[in-house]
Q: What sequence folds into this?
């Protein structure tokens, strides 16, 4: 086990709604990264937070936003859900920035109808 | 931007035989190359990683080799076992925040 937890496990939403996904990192890990994994594909980097500030962003629109809290928890928020947002959302924590190994949680499966 | 290609997409080997999965990357500045194993319904699990200042790394039945000149790296699994069946992903780091760029994955099937 990596010590990274995510909630909820599964979620069903309808197009246009908003969703919040949660992640709890390993204690002491200051960096959290979020990835989107479509079925049968590799994960795609959404963004990374380091000490509560965004530290890099992939090719995702602004309706994907995040927050990181001092207690090693974080959130991924997605507004105006689209059908293509259906995917497994993964968070990964690491001790700091730089050449750090990323430890993944089990993911949240989001289905948009 | 960085791109990572992974082959093959599916690999079927007899139990006890070796398996090799290959990846190529495009950005010569990439310097960190992890391999992850993902089982059905679970998040990716790191199995081995290598940094650009090392050519080879081994951990029991698993080894990774890196050829910086050719920009490719490979995962080698020896004496395969049924529990090795899973999807394997390679990745390469990119940028100052070391975000991972992933390959498309290889489904490894171990035949009894």
A:
């Amino acid at each position: 086990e990596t010590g990274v937890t995510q909630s909820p496990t599964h979620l069903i939403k309808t197009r246009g709604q908003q969703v919040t996904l949660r992640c709890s990192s390993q204690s002491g890990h200051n960096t959290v990264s979020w990835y989107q994994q479509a079925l049968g594909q590799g994960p795609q980097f959404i963004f990374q937070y380091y000490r509560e500030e965004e530290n890099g962003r992939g090719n995702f629109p602004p309706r994907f936003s995040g927050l990181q809290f001092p207690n090693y928890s974080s959130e991924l928020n997605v507004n105006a859900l689209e059908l293509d947002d259906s995917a497994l959302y993964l968070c990964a924590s690491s001790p700091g920035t730089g050449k750090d190994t990323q430890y993944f949680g089990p993911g949240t499966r989001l289905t948009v109808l | 931007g960085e791109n990572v290609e992974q082959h093959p997409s599916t690999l079927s080997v007899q139990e006890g035989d070796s398996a090799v999965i290959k990846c190529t990357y495009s950005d010569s500045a990439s310097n960190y190359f992890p391999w992850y194993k993902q089982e059905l319904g679970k998040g990716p699990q790191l199995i081995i990683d290598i940094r650009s200042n090392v050519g080879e790394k081994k951990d029991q039945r698993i080894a990774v080799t890196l050829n910086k000149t050719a920009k490719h790296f490979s995962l080698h699994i020896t004496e395969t076992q049924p529990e090795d069946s899973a999807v394997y992903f390679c990745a390469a780091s990119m940028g100052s925040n070391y975000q991972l760029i992933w390959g498309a994955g290889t489904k490894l099937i171990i035949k009894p």
Q: What stands out?
A: Chain A has a mean pLDDT of 92. Chain A touches chain B through 28 residues (CB under 8 Å). Chain A has no helices and eleven strands.
